Hints:
The protein is built from 6 helices and 5 strands, in the order βββαββααααα. It is mainly alpha-helical. The strands form 2 sheets. A 3-stranded antiparallel beta sheet has the order 1-2-3, with no helix packed on it. Strands 4-5 form a two-stranded antiparallel sheet.
Amino acid sequence: MIRDDERYYYDDDDDIEMIGGNIIGNIYSKISGQRFPDERHTPLYTDKGFKLAEFAGPNTHVKFRLLNEIEPINYTDKTSEAHDLRFLLSENENDVRYADNKMIQSLEKGEKEKLDYAVNLKTVKLIMKSKRGLEDYGVWDKGSFSSMEGKKLNEEDRNLFRNKLNQLEMEGFGLKTF
């Protein structure tokens, strides 16, 4: 049985993993206005000042955002949306690494073509490169932050995620067939 509360995830074997339950993370979620207590989205700069990202950051509730037609706040956030969708559809470490690399490439394109504020692009790119490096050096497990359970998605969710990713890919956010 899978049970969920604000601090712990209990899997079928009753192994407990802490997710988003640390004190600093909980404080950050409350004072920054995260939509869900386990999300850790970063503030990104916009024409109207800093605004909390909808997709840039771990533990994004992607399905909620898609069903409620919540849009990314800028190019960096849209790149994060495509990355999140690839994560959800991922089935193995190679799919996760592909998602990470594609995101970094999209952020570099954004820098080159000045598609967003440099502070957003550089900060998120640094975070992604750091994640990739920590995995490469064995500090974090490869595929960190992804369940790699794309095969287990029900057909409705898979289609929702795949259709949105296809739309983003047509807009230039990378190509990958799942």
